[in-house]
UniProtKB/TrEMBL annotation:
Name of protein: YHS domain-containing protein
Signal peptide: 1-30
Keyword Signal: yes
Protein keywords: Signal
Length: 166
């Protein structure tokens, strides 16, 4: 019974977060509810809303990237804050790409593909995890190992599905 209650609480949190996302300007979102891609990219193919995925590891903070420093990897374009960060990425992209294609890690744990907010992040075992918003991130942080494990088990089943179909 406790697991059902926790799942219901988490789903309510995600739904409220998704409701908030619905009222934000669509230009702020990378999220496409019709896409069956395993990567969360905007209409131009840019991942992580243009944030520098290397900077999470080196600066320890979300840092907006620039189209002046970009690299493509597995169908996505990544922006970086410097040529050095771009070069670090191209030398080892698997180290820097976000978990679950940049979708919300908690959403994936609950069998949903929600947009990832670049400012709601955490490195777990050297891997970047994003959440849909900071309220959802608070719940996710309550059991990071359990949520990561659930998301890892769920991801193969949902990664090729459109968010609207989940």
């Amino acid at each position: 019974m406790k697991a059902i209650t926790l799942r219901q609480t988490l789903m309510a949190t995600l739904i409220s977060g998704a409701s908030l996302m619905a009222v934000l300007p669509t230009t702020a979102l990378a999220y496409d509810v019709n896409s069956t891609a395993a990567l969360n990219v905007d209409a131009k193919g840019v991942a992580v809303q243009g944030y520098d995925v290397v900077a999470y590891h080196t600066a320890g903070a979300p840092t907006k990237g620039s189209a002046d420093f970009m690299a493509k990897h597995e169908g996505a374009t990544y922006h970086f804050s410097s040529a050095a960060n771009r070069d670090m990425f191209t030398a080892n992209p698997a180290k820097y790409v976000p978990a679950f294609g940049g979708f919300c890690a908690m959403g994936v744990a609950l069998e949903k593909k929600l947009d990832g907010d670049p400012t709601a992040w955490k490195l777990v075992d050297g891997k970047l995890h994003l959440n849909v918003n900071k309220d959802v991130q608070k719940k996710w942080l309550e059991d990071v190992p359990g949520n990561v494990k659930n998301a890892q088990m769920t991801w193969p089943k949902i990664k090729a599905k459109a968010p609207k179909d989940l």
